[in-house]
Amino acid sequence: MNSPAIMGMVAGFLISANLYAQKPYHLTGNNRSIKIPAVAGGATLKIFATDSPEALATIPPMLGKTEERGDSVEFIPTFPFRNGVVYSVVSGDRRWFTFSIPLKENLPLPKLEAIYPTADTVPANLLKIYLSFSQPMREGLAMNYLFLLDEKGDTLPGVFLDLQPELWDHSGKRLTVWFDPGRIKRDLVPNQLLGPPLNAGEKYTLLITKGWPDVHGNTLPDVFRRNITVTGADRQSPDVHKWKISSPDHNGLIAVHFGENMDRALLDHCLTILDTNDQPVPGKTTISDHESVWQFTPDQPWQPGMYKIRVDARLEDLAGNNLNRPFDRDMETGSQRDTDKPWFLLEFSIPE
Amino acid sequence: MKKTISAILLLTIFSTGLILADSDKNWTEGFVSGNPEIQSINAMAFGPEGILFIGDSKSAGVFAVATDDQASRSATEAVEINQIDKTIAALLGTTADKISIQDMAVHPASQAVYLAVHMDDGTPVLLKTSGKTFVHVPLDKVKYSKTMLANPVSEDAKDRGGRSMRQWAISDLAFYQDQVMVSGLSNEEFSSTFRSIPFPFGKDQTYASLEIYHAAHGKFETHSPIKTFLPYELNGKPHLIASYTCTPLVVFPLTEIKQGELTKGKTVAELGSWNTPLDIISFQSGEKNYLLMANSSRALMKIDIAKVSEYKDYLTTPVEENFATAGVPFIAMPYVNVQQLADFNDQYIAIIQRKANGDLTLMTLDKKRL
Question: What is the reported pTM?
């Protein structure tokens, strides 16, 4: 940029402008409005979201309205000016200057805080992973930054389901990614032709490359790698009767040991402790041991008596087997019958 | 228990729906004026009297918004607008890499093409065609009604802002026989949920919700989520033609839903690997009716609906090793990278296609030539 630049500061927003006119103009504004000296085209001015003179002829001007304010004109865009985009102020066929609102500084860079499952050993029919970020991320770009590599370091194509829109939670910080269910489900064409995405006995690397932008345009600064080892497929529904419930420790903490790693997201709300009146017992939960243990500490000390743990049947293990049915049931062998219960109950007692 | 009630309701709804369809309903009953505060637009469909149904995953609701478009163009006029992503981005004051087109619907009276766009910060924007460009359709002052899809579950995990992390992402939406039909994917459990909501939306917010599963070659069953669907009358009965995230095309009758049971769909085709179905519509050409499917990594597919009606098997035989697809035959059309489909009018369908030169183009295709 060789053009002379001016800066204006209003309401904490910094605007930089590059002039194509003879004398400097004072620009004031923010993302929602900009005041431009009336000499620059008056109310007929238009604003284009480009710094390229050639592009001006090929794109329409930005939606918005102009209002005359004495010696200046205020342009109020229908959608706020975007930080980092360069805008051209044009009147007739004359481009007066460009301006931009710099990217928001002082915002922390996004971080990948966790990948679930956290274990480095997973079943061959692992169904989904969760990526948990520190900031709301831009949607629709996951497949540009998430890769599965084989032992040689080659990228494996067609492993994840390219789902649009992507499955982000409300905060925009947690993304759910499915391994292609058509390859996991036995006997579907993709499964027969390509095999499952993960093969038992092999090692892989989950790679998240840097550059993934958050909603402010800041990007992931670091590469993230997770080495995973694949064991045999898990085709059994979790069996609540095989779970172990530990007695309360000196803090009142009890633990449910599943004997296998479970889906992290569902663990957050699929288990509830009920008192003798079937009322939920308030308390705090934590998840440990690679999502194989659910721990609960009641807010008030335990009272002697019988308690129940109500387990929502939607709870899944890592292979998408829930308490009612496995991910894909073999109807010929019929080794496991589906149930259709909304929840399962486990009992435990607190002695006098 | 809830499931049982829902299934009974659905039976009632569909049987009465068949009789009541096209009656003199006051479609805007219960509409209010104001800002519906739509947080996202994931799926759209037009209903009677130009009412636009908007599926909003972020607020877990379906909105019915009145539009007052009048007939404005000749029915034989084709449409072709190039570089729509650049045009739309410019109107919104951003760049093409920072917007995504979520869905497309064609207004039945004006034939204006409505596009739902999300900006990079998630802001939803509704636009419609006007000549060779687009105009903004503001949603802050409209006549609307809404229905919420999910009862907040108090035990759900919350983020630091107190919002549930569990989300029901709307994958498709249609209006059929006085019902707004919605399919959705959960961002947590792997299951298939399909809901049918009577319209105009009632105060009691009751609606049918059911699970649908399908089998591969009669051997393995899965409750896989529906990506896109089409309500359609097959052999004189209302059916749902649904395409799943794991490739099968599944058909099930809407009238045969048994009380308290899960519904098993009939798998009529598998449409290839490494592929996610994006959109499905039907159209008539001459005497024949066809399905048209857009896919993430396969060409536009045309399927003769008569073949779907006639199809009796459940894909019971294993697929030969060298075949990539199975079931009812389809024709791969010479249109790749088609992202959106909509029925335009009697003569045309509308598509959004990423061309080989990188341009994103909105264009109409003549049904007679498809």
Answer: 0.87
